[in-house]
Amino acid sequence: MPSNTFAKSRGNCLLQTTNHLSKLKTHYCYDEEICVNRPFALLLTLFALAQRIAYVDVTAVLESIPDYQKAQEQLDRVATQWRQEIAQEQDVIKGLYSKFQAEQVMLSEEMKRQREEEILNKEKEVRELQRRKFGPEGDLFKKREELVKPIQEKVYVAIEKFATDKGFEYIFEKGSASGMLFADKKYDKTEDIKAMLKRG
User: Fold this and answer.
1) Could you give the residue ranges of the DSSP H alpha helices within the chain?
2) pLDDT tens per residue across span 72-124
3) Most buried among 150, 153, 178, 194, using CB within 10 Å?
4) Is 48 exposed, middle or buried (0-12, 13-18, 19+ CB in 10 A)?
5) How many Cα atoms occupy the beta-carbon half-sphere of 177 within 13 Å?
């Protein structure tokens, strides 16, 4: 299990880096005159800091793991089966409604009410089935947690070990929500993490 420090760093490493740079400025800028006269020293320090930063495409790492691929295939099969079950129930509702439309002229008001209530109850059952299977805390979510989460944890443990062994202070996760607009390929350690996981 990754340490709390590492897990938190994925969300706040930009803040940590900013704080680090602030300390560097304090260290080199005793006053404005000295700060102006020593920009090269600050640039050298920033370059040294950059050597301890990397990023990893976690999605690419996961997709390279056979167990993850199998888990995704299993999830797809389960989801497809549940969608078919829901579609069958929706067909039942369509049948009930079509029958009601065809026969309503011959039905008493009480029988109409009963038929309408039957259709509404069936629709409610199907909505509940959809929520139970595909909702935020539904069966598919739980199945994904069961199959995928252990693999994700394995990847994050490997990233933490890589960072410790190689002396990286910050490792960013490359993704749509990371805020990373550009990154030099030389800081991409995705293949290193893939290789580490393959070696076990």
Assistant:
1) 4-28, 32-37, 39-50, 58-63, 66-103, 109-134, 139-166, 190-199
2) 999 999 999 999 999 999 999 999 999 999 999 999 999 999 999 999 999 99
3) 194
4) exposed
5) 5
For residue 70, what are its two tokens? 């199998």
4-28 vs 139-166: helix crossing angle, rounded to 10: 40
**Token digits of residue 199:** 């070696």
Give the start-to-end residue ranges of the domains of the chain. 4-66+147-199, 69-142
Closest residue by Cα to residue 100 from 71, 78, 123: 123
End-to-end, the C-alpha distance of the chain in Å comes to 16
The model's pTM is: 0.63
Name the 3-class secondary structure at 102.
helix
Both tokens assigned to 192: 């290193």
> What gap in Å lies between CA 165 and CA 91, rounded to an integer?
58
